[in-house]
Amino acid sequence: MTPPADPPPKRTTYRHGNLRNALLDAAVELAREGGPDAVALREVTRRAGVAPNAAYRHFADRGALVHEVSQAAMAQVARTMEAELAAVPATDDPAARARARFRAVGTGYIRFATREPGLFRTAFHVPADMAYATDTTAAGAGGLTPFEILSASLDDLVTTGILPEDRRPGAEFLAWSAVHGLSVLMIDGPLRGITPDQADSAAQDVIDMIERGI
């Protein structure tokens, strides 16, 4: 009878840069499963197959690790928004395209929240200011963060004459507040029991409201 194969040895060494990435990947998965509170250094190192103190070579403390995970989660928000933008049908009407792209930005944001609630919660486990809203660590494939993607879509509304220029200042915060509020109600509030179809309908209704109000 052939004896069972020995389990693979724990990984104790990584090529330059790989350990940090492995730790961050493990932390992102923990956040996906349980939000920012689930990110624990001991569990991160266990999943990466290294000693508990190995994390401190790359992250000063748990707070530093959670911040990196927050930025990585925000970058995933950006990529979901980019996917919605890429799906906007081609048109020769600049105004119609600008409207469609603005709606795609909001749709992508809410869609990410409902599909990845753990990462969405973690994305906003951030400092109490806008210090990292335009940091490249939170950018999608196109190099823009979610806040910058929203800003660009609003600029397009101004360029095409849909949004009056004098109403452009601060419009990001009005639009963001509305879609974020709905997202939180659907993942952590009294709307968390609605069906996916109801969630999609609510998202479009809120975006309609934003478009009429800004």
Provide a descriptive summary of the structure in words.
- It comes from Streptomyces bambusae.
- Residues 17-77 form the HTH tetR-type domain.
- Keywords: DNA-binding, Transcription, Transcription regulation.
- Residues 40-59 bind DNA.
- It is a single chain.
- The chain has 214 residues and is an all-alpha fold.
- The protein has a domain at 73-213: Tetracycline Repressor, domain 2.
- It is 60% helix and 0% strand.
- It is built from eight helices and no strands.
- It has helices at 18-34, 41-48, 62-86, 94-115, 117-123, 146-159, 171-188, 196-213.
- The radius of gyration is 20 Å and the shape is elongated.
Keywords, separated by commas or semicolons:
mainly alpha; Tetracycline Repressor, domain 2; transcription regulation
Q: Which second-level CATH architecture of the domain at 73-213 applies?
A: Orthogonal Bundle
SSE-based structural type: mainly alpha
Average of the residue pLDDT scores:
91
- C-alpha geometry: elongated
How helix-rich are the residues, as a percent range? 55-70%
Number of helices: 8
Helix-strand string: HHHHHHHH
Distance between the termini: 74 Å
The profile of the biggest β sheet is: none
Strand content: under 5%
CATH class of the domain at 73-213: Mainly Alpha
Radius of gyration: 20 Å
Low-confidence runs of at least 5 consecutive residues? none
Number of strand elements: 0
CATH topology of the domain at 73-213, by name, is: Tetracycline Repressor, domain 2
Organism: Streptomyces bambusae
Keywords: DNA-binding, Transcription, Transcription regulation
Domain HTH tetR-type: 17-77
Protein name: TetR family transcriptional regulator
